Amino acid sequence: MRYQTVTIERETTSPIQIIDITRDVQDAIMASGMKEGQATLVTQHTTAFININEQEPRLLEDMVTFLKRLVPRDGDYAHNIAPVDGRHNAHAHLMGIFMNSTETIPFTEGAPLLGQWQSIFLIELDGPRPKRSIVLHISGE
Known about the structure:
Elements lengths: L1 E11 L4 E4 L1 H11 L3 E8 L4 E7 L2 H14 L19 H7 L5 E7 L2 E2 L5 E7 L4 E12 L1
Antiparallel strand pairs: 1-8, 2-7, 3-5, 3-8, 4-7, 5-6
InterPro entries: UPF0047_YjbQ-like, YjbQ-like_sf
Pfam families: YjbQ
Protein name: YjbQ family protein
């Protein structure tokens, strides 16, 4: 069994943003030289998450609209009274309780085993941010 760790970094430009990182994950798996195994993605943030869903522009718009309705930015949140980093971002943390900070994806022949309509997304909930990091841990043969 071999292991490799790669970090994928992205700048975000919107308060809520859905960024397709499928190609980054595919490229990292191919570059590892491993043919069979699994890739685990982990965000290093409490307001940015990993999701597998469909890459369709109107659906992505619907997702952003849904999140804004689910947890409004201007809610009366205790976290915003004295935020640790000066950001009034309780809404982003609350949205995050419905998301994953990790995903594990098997791969074969050097390619992730994703369905026809599946893409891998970084979901920013508290942007814009100059850098978001996703650790990709690849294990396999």
